Structure formats: C-alpha cells, structure tokens
Amino acid sequence: MSRLVVVSNRVADPRKVAAGGLAVALAETLNETGGLWFGWSGNIVEGGTPGEGELHTQQAGPATLATVDLSREDHDSYYQGYSNGVLWPVFHYRVDLADFDAGYIAGYRRVNQMFARKLLPLLKDSDTIWVHDYHLIPLAAELRAMGCRQKIGFFLHTPLPPPLLLATIPQQDWLMRALFAYDLVGFQSEVDLSHFARYVETEAGAQPLDRHRFRAFGSTLEARAFPIGIDVDEFAALTHAQEARDTYASTREEYKRRRLLMGVDRLDYSKGIPHRVRAFRELLAQYPENRHSATLIQIASPSRESVDAYADIRRELEHLCGSINGDYGDLDWMPVRYIHRTIARKRLPGLYRATQVGLVTPLRDGMNLVAKEFIVAQDPADPGVLVLSRFAGAAERLKEALLVNPYDTHGTAQVIQQALQMPREERQQRHQKLLQRVRDEDVHWWRRSFLQALAAAGG
Ligand SMILES: O=P(O)(O)OC[C@H]1O[C@H](O[C@H]2O[C@H](CO)[C@@H](O)[C@H](O)[C@H]2O)[C@H](O)[C@@H](O)[C@@H]1O
Ligand SMILES: O=c1ccn([C@@H]2O[C@H](COP(=O)(O)OP(=O)(O)O)[C@@H](O)[C@H]2O)c(=O)[nH]1
After folding, report:
1. Domain range 4-229+443-456, CATH class
2. Whose CA is nearest to atom 16 of ligand 2?
3. Best CA proximity match to 51, nearest among 117, 143, 103
4. 266 C-alpha vs ligand 2 centroid, how far in Å?
5. Which residues of 27-78 form beta strands (DSSP E)?
6. Which pTM does this prediction carry?
7. Ligand 2 pocket test target in 26, 264, 359 with most atoms within 8 Å of CB
8. Is 410 a residue of the active site?
9. pLDDT in tens, 19-31
10. In the CATH hierarchy, which fold is given to the domain comprising 232-440?
11. Where do the domains of the chain lie?
C-alpha cells in the first residue's frame, strides 16, 4: 500500500489536540493511516538565512513528523505577508483587507521551493502526496521541476472566491498555472468548485473535458468538492469523557437560571464575531424578555496577531463587548463573556452540550468544523439549536440548521429568538437529520473520497 505524505504549513502532534480545523482534521487522518506529515515547525529563527531552515523529525504515534524552521524574513513574507495578508483576505472575499505588498511574493516562492527541496529526499517512489491549503499552492510545480513523479493532490481549506475577485491578486495567473501541476484539486463546496471552473474557462482558457476535468498549460487536472468532516466517534467519546462531563455539569450549574448562547472561533475577521455580538445586542433590545437571562459566551482563540487586520478586529470586539455589558449588564448578570484564549478541545463538548443556541455565523468560511462538533456534542433528547451562516461551507449540507445572513443584524436577532423558543420536538427532528449528515460525511469519508479520487486521477 502507498504511504501517505501530508504536507501543510501547520503541523501538530496527532496525539495532542490543537486549535484550527486543518490541524485537527489532519491529525485525525494521520492517526488512522500513519505516514509522513511535513510542514513548518512553528519555530521562527531570528536572523536566520532566508530560504534555509533546519529539518526536525520525530515519531508521533503512527505518523512521522518532519518539520522545517522558518527564518524571520521568510515567516514575515511567506506566512504573515503573502499567505495571510494577500491570499487569506482575498479568498474570504475581503479584498479591502488585502495588503498587496510586492515584496511578499518572493518569500512565498522561496519557502515553497525550500519545502520542495527538503521534502524530496524523504519521498519514496510509491508515496501518495497530499498538499493542503493556500500557503502551498506552488509546491507541486516546484516538486515536479525537481523530478517528482508521484501522484500529488491538493486540498483548499478556504473558500475560493468568484473569478473577478481572484483576479485582484497580481500573481493570479501564476497561481492558477501552478495548480495544474497537481493531479487532483479538492474544494470544500460545490460553490467553490463552480468558481474554479468559471475561472479556468474564462481567465485561463482551459478546456473543460467534462464537469470535473480541465485541460490547460499542457496538463489535465481533475477538480471536485470534498466537504471536510470531523471524527464523529472520537468527538462523541470526548463528549462522554470525564473532563467534558465536569465542564458540562459546572456550566449547567452556573447558568441554571439563564439561557446560554455560544460562539467558538479563532479571532479572525472572517468569523463575523462583531456582527454576531451586534445581533445579540439587537436580541436584547428587541426581545426584552431575554435581559437578565440570555448570556453569550464567546471564545475567541488568539490567531495571527502580528497581522494588522487581526489586531484591529480584537480592538473592535473588546470595545463592543464592553459597551454591551455596560449598557445591559447588572450586578447579577453580564450579557457577554468574552474569552480571548484557546480552550482545550477536550473541554469544548461539555460547553457545547450546555448551550441552548450555538452561533456559527462567519462572513465566509471554508467549512467550519465547530458547527459539526456542536451537533455531535448535543443530547439527542434535548438538543441545542445551531444558528449557521449561509456563507459557511458547512451550510451547503447542513440545511436543517437555522441559516442566517450574518450581515443582517436584525434578521439574525430574529432567528436567534426563534432558536431560543423552538419546541423540543422540532429541535429533536432537526438535530437527528443534522447528526446523520455529519456522520455520513465524517473525516474518514473525506479522506477516503479524496484519496480514492487521487488514485484514479490522471490514469
Ligand atoms: O494555521 P493558522 O494560521 O493558525 O490558522 C488555522 C487554520 O485556519 C484555517 O482553517 C480552515 O480549515 C478548516 C478545516 O478544513 C475549515 O473548517 C475552516 O473553514 C478553514 O478556515 C486555514 O485554512 C488553515 O490552513 C489554518 O491552519
Ligand atoms: O479555543 C478553541 C477554539 C477552537 N478550537 C478548535 O479549532 C477548530 C476550529 O476549526 P474550524 O474549522 O471551525 O475553523 P478554523 O479555525 O480552522 O478556521 C475546531 O476543531 C475547534 O474545536 C479549540 O480547540 N479551541
């Protein structure tokens, strides 16, 4: 059997838990298949030579981790600059937040070249290589240029925006050409796939051979949607473990006279947290029966703090939460509990289960695994309600959630009120259908579907 080689910027020890959906999903994949996981070590070497980084290897359960350090200059231009200052905002439809600094692209290319150079000697002829996310779009092209002939697949964890938004990236043409070095490209949703198909036809002049195969730049590429899932059994086990039970019991006890609403996100402008908090304020304003009762716990895990847009969103959120608590709070009740810290994943199921309304309302999101975790953690006899943004990839399949437009503050407040008042029977029916869908398309299904399609691609 072919060994799986996973390549991603973010690498985590698969035996430990990490914040961020990509790390969580890949850790679950590698725990099951074993293989090699290659990427950035997380170390930044001050004064290090650009394009050079020490390679570290370690065994982590069934997987080998091979990670490379980044010099400060590479980190700032490749990760912070081009990946998170250009590609991330544009891929999330936020051209207004993009920082098109012409200096970043050199670092992005340099790190992709270094990754290819360091990875190549670790590869076996029979390996299957699976590259993840926007940080590493040109990796296959670099590997191919060095003689790599193995099957290489690519999965984009973020959304892919419509062609005219993509076209704002000065290097769009080069990036799209680089994608054609892969045998298979996977997207989170059918919408992302349709944007890709339109882009390659209208901007790159590619010939669609059929709905999923495109020919351009002398290569044939297959592209499909593979919505990522979670390990349902693992998360259900976590829900019933002592730690989650304790968290559930203490949260229920503390909020026994209240209705609990919960948001769990990295503190990222794509997650729509200020919009959500404003909708919560509107709920208190429009439906006064919720005052002294509804409490929003917002966990906002620190993320990419050295990128300016992230510092801005933090300030905005702190100000907003402070003003709502000042306007509505009382001696015995604070409407918003804002926690700017990463909460250990094993504690989250207890919090989700103690919650009446889960708020997953990003302005754009590739998938959003928190939505799926929330469903799995519920008590089927008395489940909470998921309020889900129609702009999260997860919404394409989770139609029994209450779908909202997060830009519509008033409409979102109305839907939250509907969630708070939903009869138990309706909650049970919706939850049952949602749980089935999350089970059917779990992380194992996602990995199998992608790898089967990759094995069959280009043959
Ligand atoms: O690695 P970081 O810069 O700390 O950021 C964390 C990850 O954020 C993004 O996650 C995405 O992947 C999830 C799983 O597919 C998906 O549910 C979510 O919608 C995406 O935002 C990013 O794409 C990853 O590369 C980061 O590691
Ligand atoms: O304080 C936190 C916040 C998030 N997460 C985990 O991080 C992942 C977030 O993934 P998602 O796909 O929702 O969004 P991303 O952060 O990847 O954009 C989920 O597994 C969460 O359980 C966590 O463990 N602790």
Report:
1. alpha beta
2. 20
3. 117
4. 6
5. 35-45, 55-60, 63-71
6. 0.97
7. 264
8. no
9. 567 887 888 888 8
10. Rossmann fold (3.40.50)
11. 4-229+443-456, 232-440
